[in-house]
Amino acid sequence: MSPGQWQCGLCSTQFSRAEHLRRHLRSHENKRPYECSLCQRSFTRRDAKTRHEKTCKATMQSPISAIQPLAPFFGTTNPPHGLEDDFLMDMSMPYPSDFSALDWLYSTSTHMSSDNIITADRLDFLAHFTSENGMGTFLAPETLGERQKLILKHEHDSRTAGDGRELPITSSISVAAHQTIEPAMLHITSEDLDPLTARTYEILHHFRNIITTKASATVVKLDWTPSIESSVRSFFSPVNINRYLGYFWSLWYPNCPFVHRASFDPQTAPPALLCVMVLIGACLSPHGEDAATARMWLNVVEELAFSDSSFWEERDGSVGGGKTAVLDQYVGRKKKRLECVQTAYLVCSLQKREGDEEARTRVRRYRHATMVMLARDIGLATASHRTLSMDKPSETWWQQFAVEEGLIRTITYVFLFDVALTIFHNSPPRMVVSELKMEMACPEACFQAESAEECFRLLKEWETTTFWRKRLSIISVLKTICQTELTSSAVDKYSRMGSLNLFTAVQTLHSLTFHLRNSIIFESTLLPLKTGLENWRRIWNQREAEDKYVPDSPDQIWKKVGFISYSPEFWHLARIIVERIEGDSHDDCDGEADNSSHEEKKVAAAGKSQARERERYDHTDMTDVNGLIMEYRRLSLGAV
């Protein structure tokens, strides 16, 4: 039979082999015929009992003492049936006991039979994400492929219709040309000037300056030649800018929705921001040659972004004029700083996934630090809608909302980037959880609105929630869900916070695990973290996805939920890490009561020593976390 054809009739869990299904069914029947002669603990398999007896501590006060710490996860101190070593198939794998509780979780349906989060237990997305590079890895391969096919079909249909359009999914373009270029560079008449031609020559001008006037610490290795000039002109042509921006909105934007699309104008956007958006779009293009060409300009755009004088401008608190002028100056100044952070984030994300090893290391150790500095310079607590009037909509009001909401989302993503480096590269966090004082992000529909009136109407609905009324931050929500088991009404209330805020919450729990892994652990220290994880699971299962009714069409897929839809896999990974922390803690505390032989103790100590020697900090690849994921997958009975 093909993989996954053996399915449990009680909980619908699928298996690749019939014997795995038979073994799983015993967990529903609660038949445990094999009993330890020392502690009377029972097992469903003889080999599990044999392995247990080799390390059984007969002096233990209770055979279920090892699973008592699971109580905060499940809201009970009763021992769960089926918690055993049944699935530990490969004895050569390190720390198999760390996964015993998680094995139980997926071998029974008594606790999570109704949870949709269980579908993520195989960590398929994270296994792929940690084993491949490229911007396309932010989506499951099949999802990315489907969306690229949609775009290819639309391009074909547009050409067949003869309307000359590549994609109707780019931002609208105003008729005024950008004026920050050298007139001598233009050898065409104003009548023939495409609205984006000016941007092409402006980019050409910036690239030429960067390449010809290399600083001593530059990351650019190219030399300026006629062929390079021709390549820049071709790659950043008006047609390509439009086309690649279309790919950016459709294929990347759902993974990072912090640029306000309705107000984004490719003619007035900062050149570095425009360039990095174009490059990301090209890297995700359904035409393979686009990505290959785009990689040629990665270092140049990085240099352009981080050498921008706007990065280092001092904040000037003085404003003049009337009330409207003051508001315009306030919004304009904040938008300028916001675009700097957005550019830095997009460049770091692009180099992190598409750059060479030197670029990935540079981003992780230096560029990321600059990005965090920029976010702190703006002020994390200033990411708020406190000054936004809710009297009536206007264009000025809409611009203020877009900048303030964009700042909330951008700083949130800066934190998420920081946590990602911690999860995947074991890099010490540069941001601490207590810094997360920005307000929670508003619903996607508010930020996606195409008019001030539509945005105002949707925001009025959000205004009635506790998140807006109490100006809740992620850190305040996290404190609540980690304190105690939430009531059903509280779960329902928090389920409306939105996928982005929920994803940030589970990533915050990941950030906390790093500090716990690298400190002296006491069992009580883990209780709030376990409580938070269990409450998060209930909240996520109660939520309704924002893109539930978004159609799969080329002009609408930019509204889809992207990377954060895989939040349940990050939840599973956090639980695995917590179990390992707890396992290590118990191992350290059990030393004095350990009745193992001298030889057995030497072997165990050697295993721990090797594991600690293998632990690396701030490393470039993601093999460590990928190994942890694959180890857990192997221990999951081959469930599909």
UniProtKB/TrEMBL annotation:
Keywords: Metal-binding, Nucleus, Repeat, Zinc, Zinc-finger
SUPFAM superfamilies registered for this protein in UniProt: beta-beta-alpha zinc fingers (SSF57667)
Main location, first listed in the record: nucleus
InterPro entries: VerF-like, XnlR_reg_dom, Znf_C2H2_sf, Znf_C2H2_type
Residues covered by the C2H2-type domain: 6-33, 34-63
tRNA-binding recorded as keyword: no
Transmembrane segments: none
A Pfam cross-reference name: zf-C2H2
Region (Disordered): 587-616
Identification of the protein by name: C2H2-type domain-containing protein
Organism: Aspergillus keveii
